[in-house]
């Protein structure tokens, strides 16, 4: 059993299994015929490989009111065999289960009078069907060396056990080796190699077995209910002459099929190969409660699959049924069972530093006290004199469409106490029509003649039908599907334990590199919006794994899937498939190295139901979030009382003691243009003089109002009211209720819906993109789907301004630009637009990036722009200056740009040779002075990228990709009060990181500014960077201002005191500031101001001649003012506040 494999296992199924009692009535069958195994020799074993770790943690065990050694407790309860695993070098397990620990534990087992099974994993840690990792010490060996290592290691362990008189009675060569062991050489896809490795392990056991001692050898597979897998494996073993005695199976009832499937498989194994049979692993939960901080592997979902709710009694019953099923294997070949880790309690994890997901399947409670289920080992297999029913399995779940009555099965499967499952007639309860007309899930029960137990079946009602043919492969083949590429890599798997639901799934695996496409084309569709969903699981490692929708009239849409483990099923979706040609092709596109494997199941393509555009539609936020209440505001409130609501637990309630009037409204922006329907539910006592549900839109320059009257007729008499045919042409609508009433009139509103009925016809694209929509930015908490758009030439919209635009659907978060697209751009700039984001690439940059491809090769630029939720963005800003108040004021994105070759090789691109223009929508309520686009670094710090406002958007130039967000940043300095003359300027420049404080909470506005400080200020404000060498010997290369001085000097804005001296620490005079300011102004504006003006200052004679023209121009432009109305004070030091004011005026001229 591999705790790694099962750590995160969540089997999501639609089958609900019900059990109401375990006692049958008047249904008896004869006991199995003679020929079963000897009950006195029957193995009632346990795997207690974690015991040493538990004891070292101080965990103790109790039985009969007192503390005892675990081995004593187990022996007293009838356990006669112990299984111990052995790992080569288990660093991740703190050394437990290595050879030394196993030898020490083996001595204790023998001293306790029990037999011993040693389980070789041939790995440094857990081995199972999904993970058979070669020991690190064997990594450099060739195959001959690997075979010798298997022999030597096995013999070494066996000889050490023999030396302490603890030689095993049974040995496992490998653990759950369905897919082989010691990968890659020992993979089942290389069965000749695997057989040679198995033979070496077997030979080492045979060679070291003491004279007169009998040791049986087991080959062990998982999935005990999967007969085809066992046949395939052991046929290969037999063909290659591998010597062994026992076929071992793992059987966990919630993973590995029914008891009948186990029984059938074991009988077939015994008959086909003549070997004895052992269930080497089984277990079942006694509780759903968690004993530590790691979730339980087997919970309610798993026990519903098996059919037995978690309890100590059912733990005992399930284990007893496994024993009986093994005991009744034909010809006495059923040798026994091992319960896996019945004492693994909280305190010892599956690996160092982690918790334990198995504790609820132990046979001791979390305080170490033995449960009644431990008595199962005192049970004598074969003691039953007649078979009796113990459970009715739930029938296979059914999916139907709203309003349709599905056909129900005539029979239900009944489980008997020796493992047989037989069908029995069932009469189902009637189904209320309301359930069949309400999308969702419900369970119907049925009566099986002669039994107290109830049959059950889960029915799923869909709003719209699933349009995929053979969506879960329950036909047993690929009917309806097409597989191209490496077709030998895929097949239908018939094991319910591997399926997401039902008993079949699509399985892929190949022993060499492979690629394929699994697809289905669905025709005859009504044009409209569709949603694709599919489930996937697997070991991971694919180089491409994409759920796709294509050939629907638009660009291919894809969603990346990531497999993380066996039976770790995850759903993947492709939304917003806008079918315009009556068809769509859906499926998975896969590329993978050899030995990578996975499963697909339960595809679903449905016509997407309309989305409710109303926020907080049922007031379930508990307040009026997103709503506005005007007029007699005291008349309305959100009430938390499910008894007074139409749905959920909240509703809007109105009442007032005197006459009142109010409007409850919500303005919705960003709507797709088209026709809408508004619906709401209302109830109340009646008596209102005005009670209207309304919708207000713009019809050109005029407002258009549509409404419907509401008539309340009593408490909790809920009625639906609708406003239809609402035309939206500008993406905006205001909806709400308009109420006037006498005093003491009361009522309720709930469940407000605004649905798109028909989208407006598409309009031809303008020659120049329309101005940005000034609607508010979408909520920063929005979670978009992970869709990919591959751009083709037909998607490029060229205009006369030298720009080619690609408009993406709102759900896209990745765009792929094939290298062939470069020829279609014709040197145009490329603009990529989605709902809140625009990126503009210079044509030269695209040439540079694609020029990195090997000559003559094609490739793709893959750009990901993953939306980041508000909470995640706030977490990412953890390293920001604590003196800043930061608000998320728009959608944050994480950008990644990768160059992909035809061979799949990827190169990340971190910096650009030319800047990219980024435009992000911003919250219109944000303070424009303090809002900009910021780069958020991995350490949580942030860097201002820019932010010029145009039509509700912010624009900046960026030279690298990472995480960017629109932020409203409010700096606060204790020494700059709100009344200070330069407060707003200082705050804005600090927000844009042009000027910073001198210490936490301090700005020192009146302190003089040095030449180095002002030079750095100019460099940041103007975005200057140095290219040449530093000419000044008094500016150290590593000084914080060195690059700024070099950049500003190169731009001609400042000069040195001499050719070698800059004098960085000298304060700047006001006349020097004027010269620098005017030089900077001429660079940013392309010209200088006129100088033929007379200044109003009496001290102009104190201005040096070299500065006089700059002082005149700076004053005329308003860059610098006098200290007093008639004094300029040219030789005075410039303060930090004055410097900030100058920079601010330069930037805003």
From TrEMBL:
Keywords: Glycosidase, Hydrolase. It comes from the Bacteria. It catalyses: The enzyme specifically hydrolyzes (1->4)-beta-D-galactosidic linkages in type I arabinogalactans. The keyword Ligase does not apply. Residues 969-1032, 1033-1091, 1094-1149 form the SLH domain. GO terms for molecular function: arabinogalactan endo-1,4-beta-galactosidase activity; glucosidase activity. Residues 762-812 are annotated as: Disordered. Residues 763-774 have a biased composition (Pro residues). InterPro entries: Big_4, GH, Glyco_hydro_53, SLH_dom. GO terms for biological process: pectin catabolic process. Its EC number is 3.2.1.89. Belongs to the glycosyl hydrolase 53 family. This is Arabinogalactan endo-beta-1,4-galactanase. It comes from Paenibacillus abyssi.
């Amino acid at each position: 059993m591999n705790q790694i494999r099962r750590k995160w296992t969540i089997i999501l199924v639609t089958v609900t299994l019900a059990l109401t009692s375990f006692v049958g009535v008047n249904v008896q069958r004869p006991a199995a015929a003679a020929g079963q195994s000897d009950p006195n020799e029957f193995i009632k074993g346990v795997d207690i490989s974690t015991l040493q770790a538990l004891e070292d943690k101080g965990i103790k065990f109790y039985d009969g009111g007192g503390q005892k050694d675990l081995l004593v407790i187990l022996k007293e309860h009838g356990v006669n065999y112990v299984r111990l695993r052995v790992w080569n070098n288990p660093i991740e397990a703190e050394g437990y289960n290595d050879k030394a620990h196993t030898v020490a534990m083996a001595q204790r087992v023998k001293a306790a009078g029990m037999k011993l099974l040693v389980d070789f994993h041939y790995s440094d840690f857990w081995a199972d069907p999904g993970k058979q990792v070669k020991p690190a010490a064997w990594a450099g060996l060739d195959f001959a060396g690997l075979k010798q290592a298997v022999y030597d290691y096995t013999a070494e362990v066996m000889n050490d056990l023999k030396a302490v008189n603890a030689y095993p009675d049974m040995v496992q060569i490998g653990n759950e080796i369905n897919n082989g062991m010691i990968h890659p050489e020992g993979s089942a896809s290389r069965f000749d190699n695997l057989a040679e490795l198995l033979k070496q392990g077997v030979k080492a056991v045979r060679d070291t077995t003491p004279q007169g001692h009998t040791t049986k050898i087991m080959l062990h597979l998982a999935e005990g209910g999967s007969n085809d897998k066992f046949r395939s494996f052991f046929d290969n073993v037999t063909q290659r002459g591998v010597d062994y005695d026992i076929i071992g199976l793992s059987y966990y009832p919630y993973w590995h099929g029914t008891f009948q499937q186990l029984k059938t498989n074991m009988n077939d194994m015994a008959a086909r190969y003549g070997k004895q049979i052992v269930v080497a692993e089984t277990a079942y939960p006694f509780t759903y409660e968690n004993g530590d901080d790691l979730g339980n592997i087997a919970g309610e979902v798993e026990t519903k699959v098996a059919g037995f709710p978690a309890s100590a009694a059912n733990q005992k019953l399930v284990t007893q049924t496994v024993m009986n099923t093994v005991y009744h294997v034909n010809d006495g070949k059923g040798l026994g069972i091992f319960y896996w880790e019945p004492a693994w309690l909280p305190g010892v994890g599956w690996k160092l530093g982690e918790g334990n997901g198995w504790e609820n399947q132990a046979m001791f409670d979390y305080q170490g006290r033995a449960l009644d289920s431990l008595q199962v080992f005192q049970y004598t297999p074969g003691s039953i004199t007649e078979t009796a029913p113990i459970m009715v399995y739930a029938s296979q779940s059914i999916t139907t469409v709203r309003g349709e009555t599905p056909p129900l099965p005539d029979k239900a499967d009944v489980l008997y106490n020796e493992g047989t499952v037989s069908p029995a007639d069932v009469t189902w309860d009637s189904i209320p029509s309301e359930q069949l007309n309400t999308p969702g899930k419900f369970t119907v029960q049925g009566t099986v003649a002669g039994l107290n137990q109830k049959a059950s079946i889960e029915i799923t009602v869909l709003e719209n039908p699933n349009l995929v043919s053979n969506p879960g492969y329950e036909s047993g083949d690929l009917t309806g599907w097409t597989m191209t590429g490496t077709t030998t890599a895929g097949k239908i798997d018939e094991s319910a334990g591997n399926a997401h639901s039902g008993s079949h799934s699509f399985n892929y695996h190949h022993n060499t590199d492979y690629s394929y496409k699994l697809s289905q084309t669905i025709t005859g569709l009504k044009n409209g919006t569709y949603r694709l969903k599919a489930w996937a699981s697997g070991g991971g490692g694919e180089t491409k794994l994409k759920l796709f929708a294509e050939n629907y009239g638009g660009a291919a849409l894809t969603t990346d899937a990531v497999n993380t483990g066996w039976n770790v099923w995850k759903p993947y979706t492709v939304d917003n498939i806008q079918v315009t040609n009556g068809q769509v092709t859906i499926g998975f596109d896969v590329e993978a190295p050899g030995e990578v494997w996975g499963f697909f199941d339960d595809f679903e393509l449905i016509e997407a139901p309309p989305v409710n555009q109303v926020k907080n539609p049922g007031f379930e936020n508990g307040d009026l979030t997103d709503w506005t209440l005007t007029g007699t505001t005291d008349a309305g409130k959100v009430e938390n009382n499910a008894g007074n609501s139409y749905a959920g637990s909240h509703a809007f309630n109105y009442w007032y003691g005197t006459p009142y009037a109010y409007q409850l409204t919500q303005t919705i922006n960003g709507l797709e243009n088209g026709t809408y329907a508004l619906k709401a539910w209302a109830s109340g006592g009646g008596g209102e003089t005005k009670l209207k549900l309304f919708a207000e839109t713009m019809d050109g320059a005029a407002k258009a109002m549509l409404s419907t009257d509401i008539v309340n007729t009593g408490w909790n008499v809920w009625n639906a009211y609708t406003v239809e045919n609402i035309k939206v042409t500008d993406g905006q609508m205001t909806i709400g209720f308009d109420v006037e009433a006498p005093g003491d009139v009361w009522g309720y509103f709930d469940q407000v819906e605004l649905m798109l009925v028909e989208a407006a016809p598409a309009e031809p694209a303008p020659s120049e993109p329309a101005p940005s929509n000034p609607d508010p930015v979408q909520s920063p908490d929005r979670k978009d789907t992970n869709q990919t758009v591959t751009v083709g030439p037909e998607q490029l919209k060229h205009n006369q301004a030298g720009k080619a635009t690609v408009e993406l659907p709102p759900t896209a978060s990745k765009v792929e630009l094939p290298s062939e697209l470069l020829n279609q751009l014709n040197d145009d700039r490329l603009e990529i637009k989605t709902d809140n984001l625009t990126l503009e690439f210079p044509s030269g940059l695209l040439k540079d990036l694609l020029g990195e491809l090997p000559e003559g090769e094609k490739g793709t630029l893959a750009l990901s722009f993953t939306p980041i939720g508000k909470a995640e963005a706030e977490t990412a800003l953890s390293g920001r200056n604590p003196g800043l108040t930061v608000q998320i004021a728009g959608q944050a994105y994480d950008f990644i740009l990768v160059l992909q070759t035809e061979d799949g090789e990827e190169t990340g691109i971190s910096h650009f040779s030319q800047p990219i223009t980024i435009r992000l929508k911003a919250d219109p309520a944000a303070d424009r002075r303090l809002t900009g686009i910021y780069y958020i670094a991995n350490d949580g710090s942030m860097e201002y990228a820019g932010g010029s406002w145009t039509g509700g958007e912010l624009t900046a130039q960026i030279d690298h990709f990472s995480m960017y967000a629109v932020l409203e940043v409010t700096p606060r300095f204790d020494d700059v009060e709100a009344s200070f003359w330069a407060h707003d300027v200082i705050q804005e420049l600090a927000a844009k990181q042009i000027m910073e404080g001198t210490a936490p909470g301090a700005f020192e506005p009146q302190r003089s500014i040095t030449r180095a400080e002002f030079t750095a200020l100019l460099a940041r404000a103007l975005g200057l960077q140095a290219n040449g060498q530093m000419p000044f010997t008094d500016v150290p290369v590593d000084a914080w201002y060195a690059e700024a001085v070099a950049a500003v000097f190169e731009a001609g804005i400042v000069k040195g005191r001499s050719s070698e001296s800059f004098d960085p620490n000298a304060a700047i005079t006001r006349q020097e500031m004027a010269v620098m300011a005017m030089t900077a102004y001429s660079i940013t504006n392309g010209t200088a101001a006129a100088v033929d003006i007379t200044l109003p200052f009496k001290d102009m004679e104190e201005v040096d001649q070299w500065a006089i023209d700059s002082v005149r121009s700076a004053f005329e432009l308003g860059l610098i003012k006098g200290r007093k109305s008639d004094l300029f004070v040219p030789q005075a030091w410039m303060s930090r506040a004055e410097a900030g004011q100058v920079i601010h005026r330069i930037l805003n001229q």
